[in-house]
Amino acid sequence: MENRPLVLKPHIDIESDQLEEYLDMKLNFKLSDDIWIGINDGYAEFYNSLPAYAVFNEDEAFEYTQNYLKQEKLIFPTDKLRIIHRLIFDYLEDTESIFLDDNTINNNVTMNDKMNFAIGNEVRMQLELKVDNILSKDDFLSDENVQNFIVWMRQKLDGEFKHCYIKQDTKKDWECCSIYDAYTQYDWAFHIGEKEISGGVIEETKGHDFVQNSQCLNRLSELLKESIEKGDNELCQEVCLSILEWGGVLYRNERKIKELGNSLIQYLEEAKEQLNFDGIRENYQTSSGQIIYMNAGFSKIYSLYIDNFIIYDSRVGAALGLLVKRWDEERGALGIPRIWAFAYGNSRGNINRNPNCKGDKSQFLLLRSGNRYNNHIENNLKANWLLGKVLKCGKSKFNSEENPLRALEAALFMIGYSMPNNEVR
Fold first, then answer.
1. Given phi > 0 = left and psi -120 to 50 = alpha, else beta, which region is 306?
2. What Rg value do the Cα atoms of the chain yield, rounded?
3. Does residue 153 contact residue 207 with C-beta atoms inside 8 Å?
4. How far is it, in rounded angstroms, from Cα 85 to Cα 67?
């Protein structure tokens, strides 16, 4: 297979419906819905894991998608997958213009903005996207727009906030009349298998409502903190894997946890120190130079170890984007400041989580996780600060909950399942 390593532009969304139509015209065989969803999800997960200006490697993309199908227990002939893979790559390269050519890179970027890295025997130029100037927590919360939004969101916690969608798995209508109402309808089906640990076991646990999920997470949080305090790296690893299993994000993240090996506890302690800093930093890494991982999986681990740290995933990001957009509409659509451009993530399947409206310039960016450009950390920290402040400014029904911040996060999780039909797909 010809391997075409190309450099990605930042913040470009791929329209899966258009891609599906393109494949339908080109293929001489039909794809079942479950196979297409699996292939599309595999590519989306691989693409979303890359930072802007990273190399989108054709061989790596194929291998990732092939493994994804196996993980989802979807059987599909390798020769046909290769045909689809080449067509998808042709489509991305020629139709979507998500890649930068060498002339664009060389003509528009100064040498100070470049860094060399090797791909096989070839050396290409990668752009290093500069992060915004360091933003402190105090500066963020004292911003006039942020303060106005906090007042607005406080009113929506118990007051009128309507949102609805159809759940893809059950085909049932879901709706809420306030943010708190969304929390009362929290639903996440989980199952954690039994694991032997030093001094006992992590019991098999399953459930779906908020109480069952909270009991599970509280137990995992206790075990995680206990393992770190005692220096029990083996226990720490098993608890981290159980957290990922709870969240349905064990795949890929399991390898990262195991790669950390005996340095896992030290890594988490240093990550906590970095992520507890009351500001946005340019770089997040340990004393040994290890990049601080951040994605929907590691956000869950950090949330159970670091106080006042929410789980920021595609659904929470989409919900925050929707809230900011509603706030802007109610104040006369003056535009969404950069400080408010909460990032969202694509879903598995054909569920829209993009809060941008059709025809509008994209204001909310795609959630990115990567070594050189990682807006996931920035968005997670801003969400921590914002939601914490919202809960402190007056009383709401959330303040009567055992863990108000976790309850508010759960409400956003439910709201962010799907965006309205007028938003971009």
1. beta
2. 22
3. no
4. 13
Task: Extract the tokens encoding 35.
Answer: 């196979």
pLDDT single digits (tens) 29-87: 888 877 888 888 787 777 666 554 455 677 888 888 888 888 778 888 998 998 988 88
Cα atoms in the Cβ-side hemisphere of radius 13 Å centred on 185: 19
Q: Are 308 and 381 in contact (CB under 8 A)?
A: no
**Is residue 262 classed exposed, middle or buried when 0-12, 13-18 and 19+ CB atoms within 10 A define those classes?**
exposed
Yes or no: say if 417 and 315 are a contact pair by the CB < 8 Å rule: yes
- DSSP structure string for 44-91: HHHHHTSPTT-EE-HHHHHHHHHHHHHHTT----HHHHHHHHHHHHHH
For residues 261 and 267, what is the distance between their CA atoms, to the nearest angstrom? 10
Distances (CA, A) of 378 to 33, 136, 154, 340: 36, 11, 23, 11
Confidence check: pLDDT of 308 > 50: yes
